[in-house]
Amino acid sequence: MDNFDTPLSISEEDLKRFIEAIKTASTYDFSEYSEKSLMRRLEKVLSDNQMEISGFIDRLKQDTSFLEKTIKDITVNTTELFRDPTAWHMLKYNVLPLIAQNDEINIWHAGCSTGQEVYSMMIMLNEMGLLNKTNIYASDLNSDVIETAKKGVYKYRFNLLYLDNFDKVLKENPHDPGNKAEVSYSKYFDINKVKDTISMNSFLQKKPLYKKHDLVTEPNPFPGVAYDLILCRNVIIYFNYNLQNKVFSLFFNNIKINGALLLGMHESMLGPISSRFEKKGQLYIKSKKLNP
Amino acid sequence: MTNKAVIIGGSAGSFQVVIRILSQIPKSFPYPLFLCLHRLKHVREGFVEALSIKSNITILEPNDKDRIKPGIAYLAPSNYHLLIEPEFHFALSSGEPINHSRPSIDLSFASAAYAYRNNLTGIILSGANKDGALGLKAVADFEGTTIVQDPNDCQIRTMTESAIKTARVDHVLSTDQIIAFLAKMTG
After folding, report:
1. CB A149 within 8 A of CB A113
2. What is the pLDDT along chain B (187 residues), one digit of tens a residue?
């Protein structure tokens, strides 16, 4: 974490060689990834491996397991429990009530990373009495993070900061500031300060269906499922416009009418498909009006 | 020259300094101004509003891939790294914190230095850690202009002293002198 000491040690040329090497040796193509972010990640991988770019690229070409590990390191994403409380408040008060009456609710976490968003959603659904009739689907490009998500065990010390978010989202009501709900942590997870862990309770661990999935190249990872809500937060920031459009089309084709897509706090949808969605803040609704 | 930009990094003790700079920057400031500030938890939201009250120029928290426009102050959004792409648009990242910081001043400065080269002015303000030192070094390495708030003028001097130790610093200035510098850039 603190080994960042050479802000720009690789050149654009190096980055191109890296992308080419990955493309040749695997099914992954990073050529349309956001350049600066990819560069930053590559620098981190180099520094973690204590390697220099030329030797690194040579090894990628020769060593398949090293290649796989590198791809995993490059595609890993960080997240926290109830990241961005305002987005969760919006889900709780403005979005979920719209689909609460449905007999069955399908939610897809696209790019679920290590699963904190998935658990946050399940906790909120349970508090709203909606968890039983909801199917939770989650996918990520990186199979390692999916394994972490399935286990649902996180570092306590790091997540301690985010218990504040838990309180804010579940106990406070921005529309009724005086009214505070009582929600206990132990209903949902065990905190072990000695082991430094937060472990999600097993009824939450067992609930989601996970699948390894590439948003850019693959169709709906859960064939036949139409979604009431898709969450894809802080994933498309790593893609260029072209890739973003592919991903948005995939979402559009698999969201129900009146279903919604939630992007990250500072992401927005541009391009042709955006005209088919009604935008409400960070939320994109596939409205009947626009899709008769 | 239309391609210039200014980037300011600050942490503990920099809030009032930034407010003063924004309240006195010329309305016609002709370049983009990037603000990469560490935030205390309780000001994660409403920071733009707080800064906007006194600012002479528009303040925005950019979205990913927004194009950079002159005359606007762009504030790095809470909980993201703010990167400047060589094609003069923003890229956000939710990659892990660096030196416990997200946004990381080092990262924003380094990416801005790479995009703007010698047309960038980097300014490090008061702070209690060493974030920004390597970023300012990157600005210097690309022959940009480097400015550090005078440690004696800072509420907390760790960050500025660390920058002075690490990077080639062109000017060590008081808040008033920084304001004068920006006014002079406006012409």
Report:
1. yes
2. 458 999 999 999 999 999 999 999 999 999 999 999 998 655 566 788 889 999 999 999 999 999 999 999 999 998 899 999 888 899 998 888 888 889 999 999 999 999 999 999 999 999 999 999 999 999 999 999 999 999 999 999 999 999 999 999 999 999 999 999 999 999 8
**Which residue out of A12, A74, A237 would a mutagenesis test of the B interface target, given it has the greatest number of B Cβ atoms within 10 Å?**
A237
Across the interface, which of B64, B106, B109 has its CB nearest the CB of A237?
B64
Q: How many domains does chain B have?
A: 1
Measured at the alpha carbon of residue A226, what is the angle toward residues A220 and A229, in degrees to the nearest 5?
A: 100
Phi, psi of A264 (to 5 degrees): -70, 170
Q: Chain A: which residues have CB within 8 Å of chain B?
A: 1-2, 4-8, 34-37, 40-41, 44, 77-79, 83-84, 86, 161, 164, 234, 236-238, 241, 264-268, 270
Containing structural domain, residue B97 = 5-186
Per-domain residue ranges for chain A?
12-75, 85-153+203-285
Pairing of the two strands B120-124 and B5-10: parallel
Q: Which residue does chain B place closest to A6, by CA atoms?
A: B134
Please name the member of B62, B94, B135 whose beta carbon is closest to the beta carbon of A234.
B94
What CATH number corresponds to the domain at position B113?
3.40.50.180
Q: What is the pLDDT of residues A47-99, one digit of tens each?
A: 888 888 889 999 999 998 899 889 888 887 778 888 888 899 999 998 999 89
pLDDT tens-digit readout, A4-13: 444 456 888 8
Out of 3.40.50.300, 2.60.40.10, 3.40.30.10, 3.40.50.150, select the CATH number for domain A85-153+203-285. 3.40.50.150
Q: Is B38 a catalytic residue?
A: yes
How many CA atoms does the CB half-sphere of B156 hold within 13 Å? 13
Q: Is B2 on the interface with A (CB under 8 A)?
A: no
What does B109-148 look like in DSSP terms, one character per residue? HHHHHHHHGGGEEEEE---SS-TTHHHHHHHHHTT-EEEE
Q: Which residues of A17-34 are buried (b: 16+ CB within 10 A; e: fewer)?
A: bbbebbeebeebebebbb
Task: Report CB contact under 8 Å: B61, A40.
Answer: no
Q: How far apart are CA B83 and CA A285, in angstroms?
A: 29
Give the side-chain half-sphere CA count within 13 A for A8. 25
